[in-house]
Amino acid sequence: MIIDSLSNLGRYIPTVPALRLVREILEEDLLSKDLGSYKTSDPNLRYIIMTYRTEKEEADLYEVHRKETDVQILLQGTEVMEIGSRESFRETVAYDEVKDAAFGPADSILTYRADNDHFTLFFPGEPHAPNLIDKEQQHIIKVVFKIRQE
């Protein structure tokens, strides 16, 4: 997991080369684009622009991916994300290969307040629970980049 300022995104390109294209896409006006999924020039990188209202104050289920790294960036609003320990994660909702996600409870090891100046990168196997209330319910617009691991 990486949590850092968007201004530092380029520092991680040597470790995660797809971040070069992520950085280029972030230069676009993503708020003017339609909600939905987008392909990129890299067959291992796609992104989703989504909207929702934060609804829960605490995580009850964490999600874990097996094949894709998530890069989550808020375009509008703030939310809380919980990060869980790998060791305590217990899969209770079976892995869905199409969604590349399994869900289950885990012990929280970090609570993070996400905003539009930072990004969060979750590698496969790292339990995370975004979409949590930050002080009050909010309307969120988020972009999630999905980097398929080869």
List the helices and strands and how they pair.
Elements lengths: L1 E4 L13 H8 L9 E4 L5 E9 L8 E3 L3 E9 L2 E6 L8 E4 L4 E4 L3 E7 L3 E5 L5 E5 L6 E10 L2
What is the 3D shape?
A: globular
Major sheet:
6 strands, antiparallel
Summing up helix and strand content along with how strands pair, one would put the structural category as mainly beta
What is the spatial order of strands in the main beta sheet? 1-10-5-12-3-2
The name CATH uses for the topology is Jelly Rolls
Helicity level, as a percent range? under 10%
Radius of gyration: 15 Å
What is the total domain count? Answer: 1
CATH class type: Mainly Beta
What average pLDDT do the residues reach?
A: 96
CATH architecture: Sandwich
Question: Per DSSP, what share of the residues sits in E-state strands of 2 or more residues?
Answer: over 45%
Distance separating the two termini: 18 Å
Return the string of H and E elements. EHEEEEEEEEEEE
**CATH homology group:** YhcH/YjgK/YiaL
Question: Unreliable stretches, pLDDT < 50, 5 or more residues?
Answer: none
Number of strands: 12
Number of helices: 1
